[in-house]
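**Polypeptide and fold**
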Amino acid sequence: MISKYKDDVLPEYTEEIPELKPVIKADDLPKEPPFGYIILPLGREDIALDVFLASIPVSSSLRRIRSLFDETLRKSLFDYLSYNLGIATGNDDKAIKFRDRAVREYPEDYEAIEKLYIDGRLTGIILNEAVIRLRKEKEKPPSLSSVNEFSKLVRKLSKINATLIRIGREPIETYVNKALKEESDVILLARGQNINQAVEVANRLKGEGFELFSEKELEFSNPEIGTWYFLTPRENEVSLMRIWLKRPKRELL
């Protein structure tokens, strides 16, 4: 189940393989599992699956990154990851419980996280932006204003209907055709040696009628130029570019 989470649910951000720790009574279970551990009461194998689904995301990933999300966004994030892990492992009935609770308690933020994940922007933009901001804090806990500002950005980006396209070493035509098939606007993400490829794809798309989002619309520069920080399997960094493009408006018949 942990491998499924690492490979299919949250690649690049799963930092730890948590250790299983038994406790005597269910009442001894902590309200939030400590990072790196999954706590399971002895003799309660009947709740093991529920504990795994709830504990694996919070115990193995986003150890520091989570501190930049405010409370309801943070709960929405881990509820969605637990839901997704349940679906990925064929435990749909248990997965739905995470979704139902989140929709009942913080529906707008859960929907925001869901949309960002499905469009590829959670892993392609939000989490890397969190890493960048935390590195600037130089190991200090983020201030309340930092949390509020970052959470505001997350909610703003969730309202932009755009799909992330990761640019690799496929022919340029592959990415151009993929963008043209999308119903939404697109964000081109390139790292390291693929940045020039992304610029060429963007130029081709502008020739097809796409336009750059303005800095006023996004409240940051476009293209975005920065650094991508890898957390696993070892810390590493490469140059980064994201290009936000609005698809041409379709004329009404």
